[in-house]
Amino acid sequence: MDKDADKFSIYVVEDDDAVLRSLCALLIAHGFETVACTSAEQFLDRYDPAKKAFMILDLRLPGMSGLQLQTHLNELNVKIPIVVVTGHGDVPIAVQAMRAGAVDFIEKPAHEDRILKAVETASGLLFNRRPALVSKKIVVDRLEKLTDREREVLHHLLLGKLNKEIASELDVSQRTVEGHRSRIRDKMQARGIADLIRMVG
Question: Do 156 and 100 fall into the same domain?
Fold first, then answer.
């Protein structure tokens, strides 16, 4: 990835100063140019549409939220790849962001490898290196490996529901739901919900 690092910038939009500094330090250490923003409004002030860039966007921001910023950019037809960052309880909002065009989402706290993988996905879009799509036949084959209960859990996951909500609706424990989620990821060969949304929608 380093060979392309001087060809684009990464806007990091995050209101938590410690998280912002940590993310920027990680990206700079891997040779990327970053633009730190503590709010959506600051991003809009600093964004240069003439330069290749993508954004790592926290969904919970003071003033305009991350989701509102994404909607605003879509309305302006601004084509910038967005990786959304979310706390565990914000997964339903992250699912909305994915459906609105975000290329990936990361749950806090995120491991460095997970962040860099999302960077690879987003930067690839800037240079027309789109992630390989899984064919419909392969997706169908993988879905057929799921049990009826796993399909139920998958349906709820794609609606952005939390484990405790799924557990309540299916009258099972959260640990049981977590087990189903793990098996769904394995059978679907997905890293997480972002991959499942791309495959199944």
Answer: no
Write down the pTM of the prediction: 0.74
Q: Are residues 94 and 144 in the same domain?
A: no
Q: Is the domain of 53 the same as that of 107?
A: yes
Rounded CA separation 66/186 (Å): 30
Please calculate the CA angle 118-18-10 and round it to the nearest 5 degrees: 35
Q: What is the per-residue pLDDT across 107-141, written as a single tens digit (0 to 9) for each? A: 887 889 989 988 988 888 877 755 555 567 888 88
8 A C-beta contact, residue 162 and residue 90: no
Please check the confidence at residue 40 and state whether its pLDDT lies above 70.
yes
How far is the C-alpha of 56 from the C-alpha of 110, rounded, in Å? Answer: 13
Q: What is the domain-level CATH number for residue 97?
A: 3.40.50.2300
